User: Fold this.
Amino acid sequence: MKKSIFISDLTHIHNGIMAATFPLGASCVYAYAKKELANKFNFKLFKFPSKLNESLTETSPVVMGFSNFEWNLELSYKFAVLAKARDPKVAIVMGGPNFPIDEEEKIEFFKNRPAIDFVVELEGELAFVDLIKKLGDYNFNIKELKKNEEKITNTCYVNEDHLVSGPISRIKNINIVPSPYLTGAMDEFFDHPLVPIVETTRGCPFSCAFCADGLDSKNKIYRYDIQKTKDELEYIAKRVKNISELSMSDLNFGMYKQDLVTAKMIRELQDKYNYPKTLDVAGGKNMPRRIIEVASIIKGWHLGAAIQSSDSDVLKAVSRDNISSSSYKELIDFGNSQNNIKTYSDIILALPGDTKEKHIESVRFGIDNNVSSVRMHQAILLTGTPMASKKTRIEHGLKTKFRMVPGTVGFYKILDKKHLIVELQEIIIGNNTLSEKDYLDCRIFNLIVTTFFNNSQFEEIFSLLKSFDVSQTDFLIYMKDHPELYSDSIKEIFRDFVSETMEDLFVSKDEARKHILSSKNVEKYINGELGYNELMENRISLIKKFDDSCDLIFKSAEGILNQKGLLTPEIKMYLKELECFVSIRKKDPWTDTDKVKSMTFSYDFEAINNAKYKIAPNKIGLFKTSSKFNFFYDKEQKKYISNQVKMYSSHTEGLGRMLAQSDIRLFFRSFSKSI
Ligand code: SF4
Assistant:
């Protein structure tokens, strides 16, 4: 009988599916290993812990390979420990970016996790096959192989306290890797609420210090045959169920000439299958014209640039080159000129060299360039990145704390017992130039930007302020600095946000683990009362308190206009009606989608909507004319909302994630004048 080899890219599932995409990386390793060695071994691929446990209970494989990310290391390691305890002969292999780059730290990693025999660094396909072949040469005697210090491609291990590393090799012709879709390896995942993910290129020419893809060894770009991509896309479109999204793992999509061909293929798919409705892929940092051309072909690719910071010192400290300001502007202007495109920028708070002022200026840079969302991120010290090195920590005085990776705690049955498992991560909450107090102030600002500015949630107000020449960023700061305008419910949400931001953090991994897994707390973490993404969750809380949030933004608008001597009785009257209009369109967006609501207004909101809510102060009177309006969801909106709700209800932080990932303009009721 053939020996079994298991390959797993596990996800936590207790508070919804945490990593909600198809297991692309592991499936490529699986498909390649199967192509090379299927005559000798029986390969199996897993994403869900329960499925792995079923197979593990029946069989003891000779090799267990696991993807190693910060969101699944402990879960995978628990399987590894127990499988090895039952059968010490099973070889445990980890592969993925969550592994240090410093030699001493690598040895420490192995010491802390003695059940791991081998770690594959960089690409997994060649390494995994080489490892299996070499293990075969030693009749799967791990000790003998290590004793002989056998060199294995892209793989390291410890022998007698020192590290043995094999030669680094990247696949130049990645077409030797069979498609995991076309070979049927992914078929079972179409039955789950997972987003399909495809890869058309591998590698990134940039070198950002906070990113594992910035390493020199990954700088060359290799591309799959166009026909393979075409066939994969068609295969996926024919099989997706209740999923509107497609994800691509390319790191600079649109930057290369051949991406135009991919774009045309995706568009053909959209015309034929009405799928994908939205495309999630990182855009390139050069060649804005080409990116624009690509974006004009595909429907629903939201254009943006992950600038992370607009400050040159911060960028230098993380070895990052941003897209030029003129290219950035060109890109965002184009995105905004298209009806079906949202534009965004990503900003990371607390990178080395960051300050409160620099952070706010980075947000201002995005907003002044008219992006529709500024996506806020915390700086996570990812193992395996230069930013996590001792040198960077000391040089920039990084203050860090540990917390649970949202959605990654639960009881898992492994072999005959249930085990409590949690994943932890290290985030930066200050540095030489950013005090903890400033960090917290920036986080409060981030919640305000995320809730009130992003995703066109209150575009009517921001457009109005723009036509009055009031800075939108200053307005957001005004909202932050006027807590007396907050209702009791809003105050409570902000209080919760502050305590979750600063109190659910721990000085060490051990302290975090002890606290989270204590019998007093663990249920709260499992059912999502604690340990969630506080930005996403509190944004949802604010949106749910729609009347209070609406009241806050309208009062703040009146306040800032008054402060600038621009508030007239006419504008006050307009704001009053605009508030009712916004409320009837946007309150309770995913309930009662069949209901038609009506209201009479003394302003022509159809004309105002056509003017994109940019009305000069002296023109407001021109839009007066009393009409009744009906508010409703059209067929396409209903289908989109239903798909998104279904998809995200089974995910960790479902609603928060749904708002972050969806085109929420499709969640706002359509409206027309009643005849
Ligand atoms: S450009 Fe993106 S993928 Fe490339 S190194 Fe920088 S962050 Fe990583």
